[in-house]
Amino acid sequence: MDLKLAGQSVEQGFCVLPSVFDNAEIKAFRSACVNNLGCMGQTRDVAHSYHLAGFHRFPSLATIHARIVADDTINRFLSAYYRSSPYIALGLSDITVNRSQHWHTDLLRGRYSGFLKDCDPWAEAMGSLKALVYLQGGASLRILPRSHLSPTPLDDTLLDTLAETAPDVVRVEVKAGDVVMMDIRALHRGSTDADMRNPALAQMPKILVSTVFGPVNSDLARAMQVGNAHRMADWDRRFLA
């Protein structure tokens, strides 16, 4: 199974690992996130929307990250994907609660794109992979298959235009506890702003937890680590100070 899914991820830029976390773990993850909304920032103009960049740094949430990066199913997949080459968690971890997502890639973009100037993000066959852990079911993730194989702009407005004209966007359906493994170069989006304004989400929030893995010998992974450190420091100053 791992080899088949790894092959699919290489070709399409994503795949779904089903039922990685059970109901008890999902309940514990959700409880920890909801109990720590006070240490999250509000990056959207919706009162019940929250985001925390680098959640692995917070002791009250670090156990979630430790559970994800140590999970046997995820690591068997990564071992197959990277063909047993060493890989690490890069420190790009996020929790989002009721947060909309426009079309984007997870490469460093905008003011942080300069950290990629000394590497070619599309030169590596085995890219860095984000593990997206869904704490409820749904089909909010939309992705453009194979978009990780060709260079795309590091500007979000240009990505919006590119995605909206693409004919083969797919919706990815998941259940609570499923994990989507996605190349960070893939063009994707989440729920719309209108979706996230639903007042019912204040009581039953949509929560997504993620972290990124990459090979230790990857120029892209190293550049992402350095740039992300700056991103997190800036994020803390803007939303947590």
Characterization of this structure:
With 241 residues, the protein is α+β, with helices and mostly antiparallel strands. The protein is built from 7 helices and 9 strands. The strands form 2 sheets. It has a 6-stranded antiparallel β-sheet. Strands 6-5-8 form a 3-stranded antiparallel β-sheet, with no helix packed on it. The protein is globular, with a radius of gyration of 17 Å. It starts with a helix and ends with a helix. The model has no long low-confidence stretch (mean pLDDT 93).
Descriptive tags:
241 residues, six-stranded antiparallel beta sheet, three-stranded antiparallel beta sheet, 32% helix, alpha+beta, single chain, 7 helices
Short structural summary:
The chain is of the alpha+beta class. It has seven helices and nine strands; from the N terminus they run αβαβααβββαβββαβα. The model has no long low-confidence stretch (mean pLDDT 93).
Strand-helix topology:
Layout: H1 2-12, E1 14-17, H2 23-35, E2 50-53, H3 62-70, H4 72-81, E3 87-97, E4 129-134, E5 138-143, H5 156-164, E6 170-174, E7 179-183, E8 188-189, H6 193-196, E9 207-215, H7 219-239
Antiparallel strand pairs: 1-7, 2-3, 3-9, 4-7, 4-9, 5-6, 5-8
Helix pairs in contact: 1-4
